[in-house]
Amino acid sequence: MEFIPYGRQSIDEQDIAAVIAVLRSDWLTTGPAVTEFEAALEDAVGAPAAVMNSGTSALHCAYRAAEVGPGDEVITTPLTFVATAAAAMHLGATVRFCDVSDDTLNLDPDQVKSAVTPRTRVVAAVDFAGHPAELEPLRQVAHASDAVFLEDASHAIGARYQGRLIGSIADLTTFSFHPVKTVTTAEGGAVASPDPALLEGARRFRNHGLVRDRRLMQRPDEGDWHQEVHAIGLNYRMPDVLAALGTSQLRKLSRFVARRAELVARYRRLLADVDGIRVPAQRDDVEPAWHLCAIRVLEGRRRHVFDAMRAAGIGVQVHYLPVHLHPVFVDAGYTTGSCPVAERAYTELLSLPLYPDLTDAQQDRVVTELATALA
Fold first, then answer.
1. How far is CA 63 from the centre of its chain?
2. What average pLDDT does range 218-235 have in this prediction?
3. Is 252 a catalytic residue?
4. Catalytic residue from among 64, 121, 160, 181
5. Which of 90, 96, 194, 323 would you call most buried, defined as having the most Cβ atoms within 10 angstroms of its Cβ?
């Protein structure tokens, strides 16, 4: 029986050739392939970008660029991977979780407005499943409080909000290039920003905090070897091998996004008459880049359906346990019941297989097994 995963990379011979070319070159890291990938990424997201070695490191760099530190608060959604919160906590910030809207499962601007305090340094939205959050209302709430607006678009490269590319709207936008994402570099991430100062802060933090611009040096008359560290950073650099893969993948971005949208639309049609589920919502002002097809299984049957689908060789998954319910957060005083919409959604969510190489026949099998599990 063929196993159908919930997500997987789509690699072709052009991707393989791009990686091999770098392996045969003189540059394996911090070379021209990184520069080329960043230029291609700027075209894809509508703002200058700096690439990192993971989506998590991109978040860490973005929060550092926003000068998050001890005593600051970061407001975000609980319905995300833990890194969205953890990266801010590594810098000493306190995370405040706000609930989500029931249709898109994205951060609710009204909840954020009520949660803002004078200590709020960043409002961090997440584009759940690839459906853009309510970016303009959230941006307005953040800026009214002199906070930085950050968009975790790990799911949403290639999406649009009110006609604008994701990556060109928020003060800082982060991306992930994990193999199950729309484009992959194996592991990788990026920070994009229309603000040169914020982007430079992210760039510097990813490379040990090194300063090589003589105009900024305290000892500019040293020799050509000279470089300085003015603030400590970390090594979050992306190797050229992975950057070359990313550039090759970006050439297929529009095709990948279109096929994912086609598959989600087809799921909606095929599941229209299936009782006991809710299909993903889509608001009129967005063009999602669907990373997940996260349906909701009603009436307390999610565990039964999950087990039945896995037994039938369908690799469904659940995204996500709300961050504040992880034991490390419970131990820190976060409580069940604080985000009831997200918590209820978690008990229902089930991600169906979704990736560009998924065939119609495989999708038909997924739907058949789902209907059988629900019968």
1. 14
2. 92
3. no
4. 181
5. 323
